[in-house]
Write a structure and sequence with these properties.
The protein has 704 residues and is mainly β. It has 5 helices and 48 strands. 8% of the residues lie in helices and 39% in strands.
Length: 704
Amino acid sequence: MIAFDRSVITDRGRELMNLGTVLNFTRIGTGDGDYSAYENIAARTALKSAKVSYTPSSATTDENGSDVNALIANYDPVTEQAVVTSTFTLKEVGLFVTVNGTEELFALSVSYAGERMPAFNGANRSEMVCTWHISISGNAEVAVTAAGAAALAADLAAVAANLSAHEAKTVGSEAGAHGLRYYDDKLEYDDDGTWTEIETGGGGGSTITVNAVTAAIKGNDVTISDGTDSVTATMPNTGVLVFENVMMTGNLVITCDMVSIIAETTLEVPYYGSYSVDLAVGETFTLLIDTAESTLRGKTVTISGTDYVKTGTMPASGALNIKTTYEGELTITATDGTSTATKKVTTVVGTSSYSVTLAFTTGIYGASWDGTSTTAWTRTDDAEEYTDPVPYVAGATNYGSPFDDKLPWSGMVKSTRNGNVVVAIPKFWYKITQEGAGMTIKISDHAETGYSVSPAHMDRGDGSGERDVVYVGRYHCDSSYKSTTGVKPVANITRSAARTSIHNTNSKIWQMDLATRFMLWLLYIVEFADWNSQAKIGYGCGNNSGTENMGYTDSMPYHTGTTQASRTTYGLGTQYRNIEGLWDNVYDWCDGCYYNSNGLNIILNPSSFSDSSGGTSVGTPSSGWPAAFSVKNVSGTYIMFIPSATGGSESTYSCDYWNFVASNPCLYVGGDYSQGGNHGLFYVNYNTATHAGANVGCRLLELP
């Protein structure tokens, strides 16, 4: 029976008593919060670490005060179902009162050492009747909400009677009592009609004998754990280790960790008794568990499988290594008390280590292209069952995307910053894998082992580190090099002139670069699972003669689509995730890259953007209609793909033209007012450093 060290009416409880209102006691809360002897527990308004709640059973009031009664148990005596499903140490009990619809902590009892409240397994009943005596006027009104109580007043009387009956009835007969009997010098329990002997160990717990099958176990510590409690002792040179009075039941894990290898086994202990188990070194799997969630540091990490539970504590570094011999699917979980991070991993013989990242968000969305002439990709991971997005088309009332509530897409919203209408793009992580002629792209909304930060958000070497968000101009730049609506885009400028003019407007604003364009490629591919942006969103381009005013999508009720009457109608009208004209009106100069005899060169730091120097080559793209792509992972750049073969068309492979000439360094992308199927999100072309054309404009990028 638990011994409470301190019991008080809280400060708020005394205030309520003085109000003279009806005290309606509605709940008993239990928890495992720790308290010190010097703590002002009367100031508490809630339990520290709430676990299980109970409903009060009755209240009586006389001239000496009021008594509130409740049964605290690990099972429901009416339904015989478990109330406590996870073992905890009972250290705090709170009496809650509801006044005018608001629940308040009225009284609190705490125990420094606590009492183990075991999870109910069908046989190990744990129960106690609690009574709070409250010294208030006998005229004060006290009520109890008893609906749903595990034990009502009559039940409490029955419990008390049963407790007395446990003393009055004897198990020392052939019939026994309450499923137990001591008969013929044996303690037995009723196992579905068959009396089965219980082997008892001294002191009330189990005796567990561990036999070291592998000699290396000798001299090392052996631990028995039920996932909550544990006991540890050193295996003697005899190879036989006896644990006495083990106060744990259920599926126990016995482990000997010898740094590089472990010996591990499980033992089912349905009740206290004598058990013996062999322990041997087996196939050792190492789980490399990391997290970027600061609130998980110092918290328990639980690894569970079928009849298997093992725990560890996440260190301050955010990296925890746990060894196991469990083969099969494991669930890895950690909680900070508010949010829970969960990950699954399957161990198989032959693979010794597994990297696992724990995060509160778990979205990974993928698309895979088989490398054939099809434009379609296959959805993978969390996007596997997603339907295709339905962009807007003029007059439509039904449109939407399964990605509308998924980051980073859901964060691509419009705003006005520094006089520019821009679209925010939250940081994400990505992974590209070459698979023969094809490839798979995955986007994660959280840091994940093996993934890279988005090219636009990565550390660019400019002293700002990784960025949580970047902003892209919603429109092409106007003649003031601003992103605004209602005017024509600026054109007839060289790439370097556009670079300088845009940056002159603000120290954090630059000309959009290939890293940002490539980021948009990733987002579009995973969302639409198809290369053909014109077919999926709209043909776009323009009037076939000259530039027109921007803002033609301002009235569009959805963030993606075309204002034209059909997707196959050319003309201004397209936007993707609020970014207008990615292949309309004018091409956009694309900075942060240049062509030369070494191929495509990448520059990350915007202050180093150049038409001819300072870049790192990622290889030479094939020039023409792409028919194959090669994934490039070059130090000092970002993981990307470039065309490695030609032979496609406007309706096969990637659909958009990609041109390369070593002597023309400046890239531009998208589409202009000329109508053509070679245009689209993936269109890449080139020109000289002195070129300034009526169909080439620019777009800004803000790097906060």
